[in-house]
Every structure is written in structure tokens, then in C-alpha cells.
From TrEMBL:
<keyword id="KW-0479">Metal-binding</keyword>
<dbReference type="InterPro" id="IPR041440">
    <property type="entry name" value="HypF_C"/>
</dbReference>
<feature type="active site">
    <location>
        <position position="30"/>
    </location>
</feature>
<dbReference type="InterPro" id="IPR006070">
    <property type="entry name" value="Sua5-like_dom"/>
</dbReference>
<comment type="pathway">
    <text>Protein modification; [NiFe] hydrogenase maturation.</text>
</comment>
<feature type="active site">
    <location>
        <position position="48"/>
    </location>
</feature>
<dbReference type="InterPro" id="IPR011125">
    <property type="entry name" value="Znf_HypF"/>
</dbReference>
<keyword id="KW-0378">Hydrolase</keyword>
<keyword id="KW-0863">Zinc-finger</keyword>
<dbReference type="InterPro" id="IPR001792">
    <property type="entry name" value="Acylphosphatase-like_dom"/>
</dbReference>
<dbReference type="Pfam" id="PF01300">
    <property type="entry name" value="Sua5_yciO_yrdC"/>
</dbReference>
<keyword id="KW-0862">Zinc</keyword>
<dbReference type="InterPro" id="IPR004421">
    <property type="entry name" value="Carbamoyltransferase_HypF"/>
</dbReference>
<dbReference type="InterPro" id="IPR051060">
    <property type="entry name" value="Carbamoyltrans_HypF-like"/>
</dbReference>
<protein>
    <recommendedName>
        <fullName>Carbamoyltransferase HypF</fullName>
        <ecNumber>6.2.-.-</ecNumber>
    </recommendedName>
</protein>
<dbReference type="Pfam" id="PF07503">
    <property type="entry name" value="zf-HYPF"/>
</dbReference>
<feature type="domain" description="Acylphosphatase-like">
    <location>
        <begin position="15"/>
        <end position="101"/>
    </location>
</feature>
Length: 819
């Protein structure tokens, strides 16, 4: 953010209007302005409106300059200033400086994400001499609920679910006292006037409190957990299910009742000391855990103590978070052990947010619930982060991060308003408005009926919150994605332009956007590796090398296309991908002749091979897919990792990463990692990564009895090496003296959530002098696709408008082959 012109303007004026844009509502910005203005002796007023914060000030130029500098340098902790604009003001201003009522103009500001309890509030609720001692809904301008309670903007109490709780005299005094950290804290509350927590039974039966050692209902809930019970907890953005993570019987019962077979559970611990008993915590990880966003952080399970395997089956990492609300702080006061704190839902449904909904859905899991009487306006799950290649990276962007906006790069200033509908899985959508992108919170798989309903509700919510009236829509080009069908329907009904975007192009555009790559910057090599996406040739893509920018792309390389036998079933059953790979690469006869002694041969021979072969030969529900994700599945199945089925998306690949030998990765020479040459596909002429030699080497290692961890490590190294070899080959021009075709590589797609693959690929690319762009603030998985769709659509519309002004025709979205 640059404020130098604003400061210069302020110094030359005596009566000004200062516009502050960005995330400046609900974060204590007005009281900060008030204090600074009074300290430097200015007259005037400050208010919230639909564009942010508006300040009108009168005084000496040097004092106005000081105010602007302080706004820039001493903004509140949760604020994110995008711009400060200063212009002359000719209206009248009374003596003194005041905070005045919000002006409800068109919404153009940001909505602050929810913020974890600050240290001051955490100390207060534990101090018996404070009036908010053990008050579970304590907050101030530096912390507390924001997005989860908001119904409209400007962000005032009347526009939130706190409107149902009139403030008492003491809270009103704090709210109106500029010296108090609760000055204009909209969710302000206390025991006397605010929401209240209560321990209840979903079945309506009475609780016998005498059985529990407790301070209050919140403490009693943890007493139940310590006794081995499961308790539903109404948290900030939805219900959670909590139980003692050290009790194997309780963890297994939760898995059975929640219908969550093996997917790892999230954990909460009282403090860092408890976490360090089970995990190693780096300084970056500690900073993330203690940040206002308070995400789940995936940590290496390398502490002196161990949790039951059932907490995170097959994983070497545990997902921990710290208490993010005063309710959690109070619950954990007397709990020295980790607690599972997972979404309050069944299987992969959205977490419950309504009390009746929770009783209906969670009453079959537990009779106990810690509830409260403040309504949850907006469902938001926990965010998830992981350190990879030395940076904290979001894997799921939700609580604490959404819906904070993202600045669009240089060249997008004239973008019209756009709505991008996003993907089918890990669904998000994205609004573009006034040069910024608002990416929604993670919502899940749209094929789940409840998630689909929630997705449509959130579309309407964001439309209203941001007064968003798009001039164009963007969606995935897949003909069957529900999000794309909805976009096509609205485009038809409202006569709006619709830009259909190829899935992997959107992945790369999201990475370019996050890294502030300008609209007119040279093309990059985008490497998008994931499970699947619909290609421009009507086949399934998933291992793609695209020479691209926002405007278009040229597919210049790929992985070998292999049949997905059974279609969607291949994504759930890794053995199908293994069978397809082996028969496509070497044929069953060669496999039988050379590797019959492997137990793997007998397992595959027992499958209905005649049916499978017919499906592949006749293209019956067996689309060809150049999927890197399915290659991971096949290798995992060969090592007897999730051979029959995956209980959740990506399980096989995650477990394969988890078993990879660190010593092999760090010390073994590249000469021992598996060969993956790059021939050319017949017909298209595309270079592709050919895994036949790799398969022969893996199967040979199995015959030799090479340990699975070593094979897994060699596979990861081989894959990274082949990716970099492809990049080097694609960068070359026929004229050896000419500049390379590109010098920058962008990595995206869910496969790059694999720490080994990302770190190996980045290191090898950088050794070859490529500049490498990766994801950190936006997920590499499908959670970032909507952002890429939005910027691709914006580029198309900006160019179309430029062409229209020149009297020409609009440009194409895709580069012609060979460009």
C-alpha cells in the first residue's frame, strides 16, 4: 500500500476528507482514528460507510499529515488497509472530534474474518477479579466474531446476530469510552446482557450436575469429555464434536457413530506445551497456531508421547489448533490432554449450525451438547495450514481468512464485476469487484445435497453483503459440474456473458494471481497436477504442462493417458488404476511372465479381468485420463496402500507420502530413483511422461524385497525429476542461441499439497535457474480454482472492451497450437 501522495496532499490542506479502504470495519479502526485525531488536535468526525471508513478533519496541515501517517503505521491489529485517499473538504465541521453513525451507502468495503481470542481477553476470562471472569463470549475490537455473525454491512451490532442482546449499562459505558479496548466493539457482551452457554441433552432429559466436578456448564462439558463422553459444542462457525483424544475406545466410538472410517481428526490443545508433547513445532508453525486466524496446523508427530493410531490412521502428521474462542479457553482450563475437535456433522456433510439441526443430526452420536443462544449467521469451517518448502501454506481457506479479499494484479484495474462459480469439489466461488477478488470460504463437495444447498445460500448472501451485480459469469467447462450448470442457467436467465474456463488453466491463473503476476506479463509454464479436470479435447486431464497467461494457454506436455476403469469408481478404488496402468504399459502377459511371483499378481488376477479388459477396449465407462492423482493411487496400490479403496479423497496419496523414507529422500543418489522418459504421443505430438520403466523398476524392487518406504521415496523423487526434465525440454527453442520460451514456472493442483513432491520439484527447478511460483494464501487444490476462473474471465473482458473501443472483434481464450 502506498500512502505518499495522500500524505503530501494532507500536508498542503487545512480541511480534508480522508477515505480509508480495505478491511477497516469491525477491527477498532474508528476509535483508533478518534484517538489519533484528538492527540494531534484536529476537529472533525469519522464514520463507517459502504466504502470503508470516512474521515473529515480540520486543522493545521502538519497535523493532518501526522494523522495520515499514523493511520498507515499504527493501524489496528486486524485491519488491512488497501488505500488512503485525501481530498479537500468544503463542508462545515464542529469543534472537537466525534465518531458518528454509519452511513448505509453501497457496500464496497471488506468484511473482516473472525479473529481468535486476544491475549487480553484470554487473561480476563481467567481472572476472578474481572467482571467477565469465565464469560464464554468475551471479545473486544481486537478479537471475536465477525463474519459468522454478520447479516449485512456496514458492520454494526444491528446488522449482526448480536442485535438480539441489548447491552447493559456497564457494557454501554465501555462501548462509548474511547480509552477502552471495547470502544465500538459491536459484539460486546457480559454475563448480564450477552449470550449464555448451557449444557443440555439432545434427548431433552435432565442432567444430573452433582455427578460432575465443575465451575459452570462450560466446565461441566469438559468434565464429561474427561470421563470418556463425546460432547457436541456450538462453536463460532458451526457445531463441533469433542472427545478425549487419548482414549482409544472413545475415538473408535466417534469414528463409528460419525461414519468417518479413517480420515484424520483435528485436535485442540490447551497450549503449546501440550502440543509439544506430541508434535514438533517450528517457529513458523507456532506463529500460525497463535495468530488471530488460529488455523489447524499440520505438524510432524515427533513429540515424546503418542496418541492412538485411530486419531490419524496411517499419517505421520497431526492437525492441531489452539483454543480460538473464550468458550474453548474456559473448556480447556483444566484439561491437560489433547481433545479431538472435529466438525459436527455426519460423514462429509456440512457442519450443523442450527440448534434443531444439531439435535437431529448429532443426537445419534452423543446425547450431550454445550449450546448457547447466539445464532450462527454464516457457516465457516476451520482453516488448515501446513509448512512446505519453508512457508506456511493454506490447504483449506475458511475461518480466520475468508472472506478477506485479494488484490488483483496490475492490469486488472478496469475489470468489470464478475462472479466465478468455482469447481465441484472443495467448492468456493469468487466475486470480483473494484479490482479486488473476494474468495468464499471452503464449502465442500457439491454432490452432497446439504453442501449444494449451503453453496446456493452463500451465493445469495455474498450478493447481498457486497451489493454485487456481476456483468459476467465464469465457470468450469465441465458439462456436468453442478456449479457450471448453475452458472449457465443464470447466464441464460439474466442475459449475462458466460466465460467457460478450462480447469487446469484456472489452477495456474490462481497461482499467478496470488503471486501478483501482471496481466501483461510474459507467459509462464504452468504445471497443474491433480485428480482430474475436463480437457478441451473432451478427455480427462490431470497432469498438464501449459504455456499460459491469464488470456489463454497452449497445452505443451502431459502425462500418459490411462483408462479410468469404472469412471468415478477409479477415484475410490486404487487397484483399478494399478490394473489400468500395468495393462496399458506392459500388458497382462508381460506382467504375468515377469512378476507372477508377487502377491500383487494374485490379487489383480482375482479381479474380473475379462470385464475390465472389455471396458477398456470398448471405452465403456473408462475414459482416458492424464491424471497425476490416479498415478499416485496406482503406485500406492502396488505398495499395498489402500489397495481396495480410499475412505476419503486423496487418502492413498497422503499415506504414500507418509511412508516415504526421509533418509532415502535426503541421501540416496538420483541414479537409484526410477526412470520416467519423455517420448511423444502419437497423433497429438505432445511430449508426455511415460511411466513404463518406472513400473518395471518398482515391481523389480518388490521382488527384491525393497522396503515400501524406500520405494515410495524413490517414486516421489522420480516424479519430481521427470517434471523438471519436461520443463527444461519445453523451455528450449530450436535456435539454441534464442532466449528460452519461458523463465518462470507456476505450480498448482492438489498433488502439490504433497510436501515431498512440492519441495523436490521447487528445489530442482530453482537449481535449473527457473523462477518458481507456488501457492500459500490460496489453496493449491480446487479451493483456489474460482479465483483463477475470475481472473481469466476478467482478462478476457478487459481485452474485449479494449478491442471494442478500437472497433475490432474480441480475442480468443486459447492460444493456437504452436504459438
Amino acid at each position: 500500500m502506498s500512502t505518499q501522495p495522500a500524505i503530501a496532499n494532507a500536508a498542503a490542506l487545512e480541511s480534508v476528507q480522508i477515505r480509508v479502504r480495505g478491511r477497516v470495519q469491525g477491527v477498532g479502526f474508528r476509535p483508533t482514528v478518534w484517538r489519533h485525531a484528538r492527540e494531534v488536535g484536529l476537529d472533525g468526525e469519522v464514520l463507517n460507510d459502504g466504502e470503508g471508513v470516512l474521515i473529515r478533519a480540520r486543522g493545521q496541515g502538519k497535523d493532518i499529515e501526522t494523522l495520515v501517517r499514523r493511520l498507515r503505521d499504527e493501524a489496528p491489529l486486524l485491519a488491512a488497509i488497501e488505500a488512503i485517499e485525501v481530498e479537500p473538504f468544503t463542508g462545515r465541521l464542529a469543534p472537537g472530534f466525534r465518531i458518528i453513525e454509519s452511513n448505509r451507502s453501497e457496500a464496497r468495503t471488506e468484511i473482516s474474518p473472525d479473529a481468535a481470542i486476544c491475549p487480553a481477553c484470554a487473561a480476563e476470562v481467567l481472572d476472578p477479579f474481572e467482571r467477565r471472569f469465565r464469560y464464554a463470549f468475551t471479545n473486544c475490537t481486537h478479537c471475536g466474531p465477525r463474519f459468522t455473525i454478520i447479516r449485512s454491512i456496514p458492520y454494526d451490532r444491528s446488522a449482526t446476530t448480536m442485535a438480539a442482546f441489548p447491552v447493559c449499562a456497564e457494557c454501554a459505558a465501555e462501548y462509548g469510552d474511547p480509552a477502552n479496548r471495547r470502544f465500538h466493539a459491536e459484539p460486546i457482551a457480559c454475563h448480564a446482557c450477552g449470550p449464555k452457554a448451557q449444557l443440555v441433552r439432545f434427548d431433552g432429559r435432565a442432567l444430573t450436575y452433582e455427578q460432575h466436578s465443575m465451575f459452570d456448564d462450560v466446565d461441566a462439558a469438559m468434565s464429561l469429555i474427561q470421563k470418556g463422553e463425546i460432547v457436541a459444542v456450538k462453536a463460532l462457525g458451526g457445531y463441533q464434536l469433542a472427545c478425549d483424544a487419548t482414549r482409544l475406545d472413545t475415538v473408535e466410538r466417534l469414528r463409528l457413530l460419525k461414519r468417518r472410517e479413517v480420515k484424520p481428526f483435528a485436535l485442540m490443545a490447551r497450549d503449546l506445551d501440550v502440543i509439544r508433547r506430541f508434535c514438533a513445532v517450528s517457529p513458523d508453525e507456532e506463529e500460525a497456531l497463535c495468530s488471530p486466524a488460529a488455523p489447524i496446523v499440520l505438524l510432524d508427530a515427533a513429540g515424546p508421547e503418542r496418541l492412538p493410531e485411530a486419531v490419524a490412521p496411517g499419517m505421520r502428521m497431526l492437525g492441531f489448533m489452539l483454543p480460538s474462542t473464550p468458550l474453548h479457553v474456559l473448556m480447556f482450563r483444566r484439561m491437560p490432554r489433547p481433545v479431538i475437535m472435529t466438525s459436527g456433522n455426519l460423514s462429509d456433510e456440512p457442519q450443523a449450525i442450527g440448534d434443531a439441526e444439531a439435535a437431529r443430526k448429532l443426537g445419534t452420536i452423543t446425547p450431550y451438547a454445550l449450546v448457547h443462544d447466539r445464532e450462527i449467521a454464516n457457516r465457516v469451517d476451520d482453516s488448515v495450514m501446513r509448512v512446505m518448502d519453508g512457508r506456511m501454506r493454506l490447504l483449506r481457506r475458511a475461518r480466520g481468512y475468508a472472506p478477506a479479499s485479494i488484490s488483483l494484479p496490475k492490469g486488472f484495474e478496469d475489470s468489470p464485476d464478475i462472479l466465478a462459480y468455482g469447481p465441484e469439489m472443495k467448492a468456493t466461488f469468487c466475486l470480483v469487484k473494484e479490482g479486488r477478488a473476494v474468495l468464499s470460504q471452503h464449502q465442500g463437495d457439491l454432490q452432497d445435497a446439504a453442501t449444494w444447498d449451503d453453496y446456493r445460500k452463500n451465493l445469495a448472501l455474498f450478493r447481498d453483503l457486497f451489493a454485487h451485480d456481476p456483468q459476467a459469469l465464469a465457470c468450469d467447462m465441465h458439462p456436468e459440474y453442478l456449479s457450471a450448470k448453475l452458472a449457465r442457467k443464470r447466464a441464460s436467465e439474466d442475459s449475462l456473458a458466460l466465460i467457460e474456463v478450462q480447469h487446469h488453466h484456472a489452477h495456474i491463473a490462481a497461482c499467478l494471481t496470488e503471486n501478483a503476476r501482471a496481466l501483461d506479463a510474459p507467459r509462464v509454464l504452468g504445471i497443474a497436477l491433480d485428480g482430474l479436470g475436463y480437457g478441451t479435447d473432451d478427455t480427462i486431464w490431470g497432469g498438464e504442462f501449459l504455456l499460459c497467461d491469464y488470456r489463454g494457454f497452449q497445452r505443451v506436455g502431459t502425462f500418459r493417458p490411462v483408462a479410468m476403469v469404472g469412471g468415478a469408481a477409479a477415484s475410490r478404488e486404487p487397484w483399478r488404476n494399478l490394473y489400468a496402468h500395468l495393462t496399458a504399459q506392459m500388458g497382462w502377459a508381460a506382467f504375468a511372465m515377469n512378476f507372477r511371483q508377487l502377491p500383487l499378481f494374485e490379487r489383480l488376477a482375482a479381479k474380473p479381468r475379462a470385464v475390465l479388459d472389455t471396458m477398456i477396449h470398448d471405452h465403456i465407462n473408462s475414459p482416458l485420463a492424464s491424471s497425476c492423482g490416479r498415478l499416485f493411487d496406482a503406485v500406492a496400490a502396488a505398495l499395498d496402500v489402500c489397495f481396495e479403496r480410499q475412505a476419503y479423497e486423496g487418502e492413498a496419496a497422503a499415506r504414500l507420502e507418509a511412508i516415504a523414507c526421509p533418509k532415502t529422500l535426503a541421501e540416496e543418489d538420483d541414479s537409484l530413483c526410477y526412470p520416467m522418459p519423455i517420448p511423444v504421443l502419437k497423433g497429438s505430438g505432445l511430449p508426455y511422461i511415460e511411466p513404463l520403466a518406472m513400473w518395471n523398476a518398482i515391481l523389480g524392487d518388490l521382488i527384491l524385497g525393497t522396503p515400501q518406504p524406500i520405494i515410495a521415496a524413490r517414486f516421489h523423487k522420480a516424479l519430481a525429476r521427470s517434471i523438471v526434465t519436461m520443463a527444461i525440454q519445453l523451455a528450449r527453442r530450436d535456435d539454441e542461441d534464442a532466449q528460452p520460451r519461458f523463465d518462470t514456472v507456476a505450480l498448482s493442483g492438489g498433488c502439490f499439497q504433497n510436501r515431498i513432491l512440492l519441495e523436490q520439484t521447487v528445489r530442482r527447478l530453482e537449481e535449473k535457474k527457473f523462477k518458481v511460483l507456488t501457492h500459500a494464501k490460496v489453496p493449491a487444490n480446487d479451493g483456489g480454482v474460482a479465483l483463477g476462473q475470475a481472473t481469466i474471465a476478467a482478462a478476457h473482458l478487459i481485452d474485449a472492451e479494449r478491442t471494442r473501443r478500437k472497433g475490432g472483434t474480441s480475442c480468443a481464450l486459447e492460444f493456437p497450437d504452436g504459438s
